UniProtKB/TrEMBL annotation:
This is V-type proton ATPase subunit a. GO terms for molecular function: ATPase binding; proton-transporting ATPase activity, rotational mechanism. Its main location: membrane. One of its GO terms (cellular component) is vacuolar proton-transporting V-type ATPase, V0 domain. Keywords: Coiled coil, Hydrogen ion transport, Ion transport, Membrane, Transmembrane, Transmembrane helix, Transport. It comes from Zingiber officinale (Ginger). Belongs to the V-ATPase 116 kDa subunit family. The keyword Membrane applies. The chain crosses the membrane at residues 421-445, 466-483, 584-601, 660-680, 791-812. Residues 92-126 form a coiled coil.
Length: 854
């Protein structure tokens, strides 16, 4: 083990060393200090006012002010979006203003914009009314003129245009209206207006029922769209004229018009007055159009001016609000006029934080400096890994399972290689890999442009994992070359085949097979095997055994990482009672199977490994015969069998004294695994209690005041501070709970060793499914269509093959292999050593504000 102790530490293997710090800031420099800390983004503040509601905190009024300014900024952004104004940040006109000046300016802009909106709405409403009035004058004037010109027509000509209902004198209203007397003398009146085209039929039916048919309804399309005052959208409308008689009918018709949202306009009966009124309305419409255009240009100019500074103002308000939200997490001492805060920061960041606090003291002209010092804590620190564009996606994959404990071994270091490689084992096709490579390169080459845009959920996921896609593509190309598949078609890339057909036409390839006549193919699967009798049995055997080797290797890596964790945390009990028994158990069964696979490949033996593994337990002393792969195999199998399992009494009766001693060792080994956590937890419990008592003793002897330790005040007692980082509750050691937990853990590991190894066979299954599905698409779509002489069928087959490849193999199969690779890492690999019950380091940082929604 000395070799492992001498290895250099890995930067990303464990999280950064964290420190619990305390800040004591004068009130005059607190805001500037927190703002500078937000620029650094390396300090996570603790909320020391959890028992207080948001309205009981010190800076609640400042937060409300920032919230009101945020509302105004959202109002401006909504107005710019509705107006369709294109704005660009103007760095040349950017000016430095404080929060009070910005608040005044935003209020002025809001008042001005609201006034312009009100004036514009009034003018637009007047314009719409005049436009409707103009349309009513044009259409209704024709109705009235037509009625006057045909006043002497016969009764039979009028029956087609009115209702057959009669009044008390035996004549209909329209029959009375055509008498030679003027309409006002005969009592016939009319109401003209305009209504939405969708309400026309219902409106007419309602008028007919309300007047009992004593009316004449005439309508015509308006001819152009008119703005609807309710929805604000342009709709098709219909001009109508209702002829009636009597005040009661008039009252009913007006109420119905109001209920249906119809606009009524007075139309004179004389043609001269109609023409004069239409001319006046047209003039007013022209004037309003000029006024509306000028007002719209002025409004758009004002919105463009606001939009050029909107982004800077939004960021400024977000920063100020975040600063005051952070200040509300600190304790405020009225007597000493200072704010006291606690938080976690990486140890390497303490010089930067001290320098930022020093600058804040100078720039705020404070007479008292800011105190920054470390604190003792029994609380588990947050987990912080420094990542870059390449490693961030892999770290997020691990964090999706669970955030690592403080300084726990980080699986992301190994997942950078193992995750895309296991994906490629299932996805191996260098043609499909090239397609993934092109897609990932497009995302990487345009990452700056895409990073500044608002992307959809799918595109954002693809962009975030662009480097994962890159490695997945590269490993897929490698595995595709290993399988010799390019869209399921083999190629002679690395030389000639080592096999040939038995006859010239290769007619017996599927039945008899091939003949080997030269050295093996240099790299990967021999392309001549495609379609031969031995293709599927060989690929099945190859991929299945390769899956077992990869699974045993990765599970051993997980158990080895548990050793490094135990070594780092100076816990020899974990090494002696968990690491060693788990390594012995796993490798006694599946490690031995992996060894047999490697020996069989190297020697070319025809041994049946199924028979070897099964009869290793059924007949451990039986003759191996042709299944013997190496000298001493029988003795090794007996030893491993005794270590693993005694199921039959006949086996026990055949055991010698040495074997009985081995059985005793196995029982002791199982007991060690079973009681490992009992010993560990009891030891941890005692050490934790001792550490806790030492912490309390240090607190009582060094400084009585936790919050103002350096100032030497003593107003708060440690035992009565629920927000203190040192206040930690420890549960008593419970033997029965630990025993049950460790028994379940032991059974889970024994059964999991079998199920996890079998789980890696998904590599074989998905690889075979991907290959066969690709073959089906190639043979049943592309080759089948290419067998016809019609160019239309060939193009159709090519298009269908391209779509099937893109949507099924490149999208669905990619997602399937991705999910299975996630499962193998989260359960089979990380389950051997990774706890994942920590919490992430979330510093107060202004860099994260640009991506956050209000």
């Amino acid at each position: 083990m000395k070799f492992f102790d001498d290895l250099a530490p890995m930067d990303h293997f464990r999280s950064e060393d964290m420190s619990l710090v305390q800040l004591i800031m004068p009130v005059e420099s607190a805001q500037l200090a927190v703002s500078y800390l937000g620029e650094i983004g390396l300090l996570q503040f603790k909320d020391l006012n959890e028992e207080k509601s948001p309205f009981q905190r010190t800076f609640v009024n400042q937060v409300k002010r920032c919230g009101e300014m945020s509302r105004k900024l959202r109002f401006f952004a909504d107005q710019i979006s509705k107006a369709g104004v294109t704005t660009y940040p103007d760095s040349a006109s950017e000016e430095v203003i404080d929060l009070e000046q910005l608040e005044i300016r935003l209020s002025e802009h809001e008042v001005e914009l609201l006034e312009m909106n009100r004036n514009s709405e009034k003018l637009q409403q007047t314009y719409n009314e005049l436009l409707e009035f103009k349309l009513v004058l044009l259409k209704a004037g024709r109705f009235l003129g037509s009625a006057q010109n045909h006043a002497v027509m016969a009764e039979t000509e009028l029956v087609e245009n009115n209702y057959s209902m009669k009044d008390e004198d035996g004549l209909s209203l329209l029959e009375q209206s055509i008498q030679p007397e003027p309409s006002n003398m005969a009592g016939l009146r009319f109401i003209s207006g305009i209504i939405c085209q969708s309400k026309e039929l219902t409106f007419e039916r309602m008028l007919f029922r309300a007047t009992r048919g004593n009316m004449f309804f005439n309508q015509a399309p308006a001819g152009e769209q008119v703005m609807d005052p309710v929805s604000g959208e342009k709709v098709h409308k219909t001009v109508f004229v209702v002829f009636f008689s009597g005040e009661q009918a008039k009252s009913k018709i007006l109420k119905i018009c109001q209920a249906f949202g119809a606009s009524c306009y007075p139309v004179p009966e004389e043609n001269n007055k109609q023409k004069q009124l239409a001319h006046e309305v047209s003039l007013r419409l022209s004037e309003l159009e000029v006024t509306l255009d000028a007002g719209m240009r002025h409004r758009n100019k004002a919105l463009a001016s606001i939009g050029s500074q909107l982004w800077n103002w939004t960021i400024m308000v977000k920063k100020e609000k975040a600063v005051y939200d952070t200040l509300n997490m600190l304790n405020f001492d009225v007597t000493k006029k200072c704010l006291v805060g606690e938080g976690w920061c990486p140890t390497f960041a303490k010089p930067q934080i001290k320098e930022a606090l020093h600058h804040a003291t100078i720039h705020s002209n404070s007479q008292v400096g800011i105190i920054f010092h470390d604190m003792d804590s029994s609380e588990s620190p947050p987990t912080y890994f420094r990542t870059n564009r390449f490693t961030n996606a892999f770290q997020e994959i691990v964090d999706a399972y669970g955030v690592a404990r403080f300084q726990e071994a980080n699986p992301a270091v190994y997942s950078v290689i193992t995750f895309p490689f296991l994906f490629a084992v299932m996805f191996g096709d260098w043609g499909h890999g090239l397609c993934l490579l092109l897609g990932s390169l497009v995302l990487i080459l345009h990452e700056k442009k895409l990073g500044s845009q608002k992307l959809g959920s799918f595109m954002e996921m693809a962009y975030g994992g662009r480097y994962v896609l890159l490695l997945m593509a590269l490993f897929s190309i490698y595995c595709g070359l290993l399988y010799n598949e390019f869209f399921s078609v083999p190629f002679y890339i690395f030389g000639e085949s080592a096999y040939k057909c038995r006859n010239a036409d290769c007619s017996d390839v599927h039945t008899v097979g091939l003949i080997k006549y030269r050295d093996p193919y240099p790299f990967g699967v021999d392309p001549k095997w495609r379609g031969s009798r031995s293709e599927l049995p060989f690929l099945n055997s190859l991929k299945m055994k390769m899956s077992i080797l990869l699974g045993v290797s990765q599970m051993n890596l997980g158990i080895i990482l548990s050793y490094f964790d135990a070594k780092f945390h100076a816990n020899p009990l974990d090494i002696q009672y968990q690491f060693i028994p788990q390594m012995i158990f796993l490798n006694s069964l599946f490690g031995y199977l992996a060894l047999l696979i490697v020996i069989k490949w190297c020697t070319g033996s025809q041994a049946d490994l199924y028979h070897v593994m099964i009869y290793m337990f059924l007949e451990p002393f039986g003759n191996l015969g042709e299944n013997q792969l190496f000298w001493g195999q029988k003795e090794l199998q007996v030893t491993l069998c005794i270590h693993l399992l005694y199921r039959e009494m006949d086996v026990f009766s055949m055991c010698s004294t040495t074997e009985i001693l081995l059985l005793v060792l196995v029982i002791i080994e199982v007991c060690l695994i079973l009681y490992a956590d009992i010993i560990i937890d009891s030891g941890h419990s005692g050490s934790s209690l001792d550490a806790f008592s030492k912490t309390i003793y240090l607190e009582e002897t060094t400084d009585r005041g936790r919050t103002y330790g350096i100032l030497g005040t003593s107003e708060m007692d440690v035992d009565h501070e629920p927000d203190s980082a040192r206040h930690q509750h420890h549960e008593d050691f419970n033997f029965s709970e630990v025993f049950v937990h460790q028994m379940i853990h032991s059974i889970e590991f024994v059964l999991g060793a079998v199920s996890n190894t079998a789980s890696y066979l998904r590599l074989w299954a998905l690889s075979l499914a991907h290959s066969e599905l690709s073959t089906v698409f190639y043979e049943k779509l592309l080759l089948l269509a290419w067998g016809y002489d019609s160019i239309v069928i060939r193009i159709t087959g090519l298009v269908v093959f391209a779509f099937a490849t893109a949507f099924v193999l490149l999208m669905m199969e990619t997602l399937s292999a991705l999910l299975h690779a996630l499962r193998l890492h989260w359960v089979e690999f990380m389950g051997k050593f990774y706890h994942g019950d920590g919490y992430k380091f979330k510093p107060f940082s202004f860099k994260l504000l640009a991506d956050e929604e209000d």
